[in-house]
## 1
Amino acid sequence: MPELPEVTVIVNSLNKKIKGLILESVEYDWPRKFFWGNYSIKDLKGVKVTSVDRKGKVVLIEVSKGTKGAKGTKGAKDITILIHLKLTGQLIYQDAKTRVAGGHPIPPLNLPSPNKTTRVIFAFTNGGHLYFNDLRKFGWVKIVSSNKYQVSSAIGELGPDALEISFREFSERLEKKPNARIKKLLMDQSFVSGVGNIYSDEGLWRAKIHPARSVASLSDAEVKALYDGIQESLKLAIDKGGSSANSFVDSGGEKGLFLTFAKAYYMIGKPCSRCGTPIARKKMDGRSAHFCPSCQKLK
DNA sequence: CACTTGACCTGTCCGC
DNA sequence: TGCGGACAGGTCAAGT
């Protein structure tokens, strides 16, 4: 799932479900991708979840050891659990009453957890569990102190959030990279954060821009259309997934929800919904770009 | 330097 | 049915 809309949806769901819960234990069989920093596993026992957040595609679970002090100061005891889902990560919370799931649709999000892709299990004192499943083991978990420096160095360099960036800032940042190919730049997290292969394809389709175009070749109107196209496709995806996390599971079978609104991504050979030309896929910069060869011309 | 390629992992699907 | 190769919602390190 690892793009902004999917991360946003699961973060919103988790915020409703695990805020206030107390961690009982953490189990993992995945030392290679589990970074404790200065902490150890016992530092998480008894901590309380204070919020679940998102930066780019990274999930942040804020926890606190303190006994709810009167002052709202962030003490040294606050810890941030960072989770990156990479290509095939999933986060699933379930307890006796509820279940929320988000992430990559393979294996199906309704498959019971733990299962063979389960890498980390966070157990809470209410009997609920948060499972981090990741088929390909590309994802990671980092445990750091909740201060700006620690958190941002663990995440890496991030540009403005794709949902929050203004059109003005978007176009100003583009101007600094005239030679970049537009699709590659959109997926660069230090340029804007949150956009990956799906939403770069979707945004470019909406703007009728070929993914291999250079930034310098884009007209002002095209830059505006691209900005709008990205905003629209991100928001549409959040809406589709946001009504209920379970719709992720139900609506698209194993392929997941996104196929129900994708215009270009994964639509290889299907008619473009604007002009009927079959959608093409081409390898570009190491990734598959999906586009309409007729609407999105390489000038 | 900038840019490209490989590596990280495991699984599915498609063609012969 | 079996086997090989391509491919996968991401990112970093190493090589050129």
## 2
Amino acid sequence: MKYPTLYQAFRKHIDLSPKAYLDLENRLIHKTLDKKEFLINEGQVIRYLPFIAKGLMVNYRLDGEGEKHVIQIRWAGLWLGDLYSFFSGAPTKFNIRAYQPTELLMINHETFDYITKKHPVYERFFRLSIQNAYIETLNQIFNLHSSSAEARYLELINNVPALLNDIPHYLIASYLSIKPQSLSRIRKKYK
Amino acid sequence: MKYPTLYQAFRKHIDLSPKAYLDLENRLIHKTLDKKEFLINEGQVIRYLPFIAKGLMVNYRLDGEGEKHVIQIRWAGLWLGDLYSFFSGAPTKFNIRAYQPTELLMINHETFDYITKKHPVYERFFRLSIQNAYIETLNQIFNLHSSSAEARYLELINNVPALLNDIPHYLIASYLSIKPQSLSRIRKKYK
DNA sequence: AGATTCCATTCACCTATGTTAATGGAATAA
DNA sequence: TTATTCCATTAACATAGGTGAATGGAATCT
């Protein structure tokens, strides 16, 4: 078993035999990204379901003025990507980029079809994954509605204290939906 | 066929024979809600997947101060509810309420299990539905990040002009994440 | 019908965050 | 190493949206 983190990620949601896991593990595509390297850009079709084995990735969209808006920040142990683009074949609207040296384990369509047919428990896993991703974004909307930027900042660094050292602050500001200057202003209050 | 709207909703995503559709239609639970009647409240477990045949429903969450935050507004032809609560059995954090006389067609667990086993195409439909709901919320987050309240208002009434007559303005304000006074201020500009 | 509650609107004032510009240090490139 | 770009921070000023209070009309209750 080369990637116990991945096995654990599955076991959190489904009852998966080591054998069924290894059947998948042997088919994974391993990909390494340097700091600031892109996994995918707006307009491309994503052909993989990527799991972050190590590192940190940021998912942002560009608005009409070309301004970046960070929608997701994801780290080791999590999936990311654009499920819609993967399943529908439509070009993505997202830009997904590593901000630390990152290792990905990726499932392509062929492997996805194979393992969900061979081990139906994986089908359940991916349905649960989408469901969880959906719930998480609903929470994110609720937070944007109900908490101030300051409160969102405090919650974020409380949950993921390492974040401030791992990515540029302007990306954290963008994720919080404020400008870097405002983030600085908030941070000053807590020094 | 009693509910062509529902059949159309399925046909938008999957290739469904009338026979397979009728097999479901006969098992639907029909529910009528009065104006302002709740479908479900925070803390309850939702036991159905509801489709809106007629009317209009609002989904909101309460924050720590007891303030309502409207997360979704949904109308005829759409599904709603809390997929997470339905599939996991966990109590919901949402309050779902009709704001017009509403008719729902609901699928319970027994029916869900039956039709997805009998007609696997339904399985695909529900995976696509979750996926679409997920994409929609990602868009909602992007809009909250990238557009002003004024721009979000203009987009909303452009997409759903009837909304202003169908629900109280304070709910629209909440959905836009502003106060009713601010909505009035914006509306004044466009008279 | 009359009383009551609810709701949209307006106004004056307030606050959080945006904007523009400047600075210096850190990271990167030559 | 030096030059250059990038980034976090600060400050002064600008603005979108919040707050609290008042008003009048619509809807609901008795």
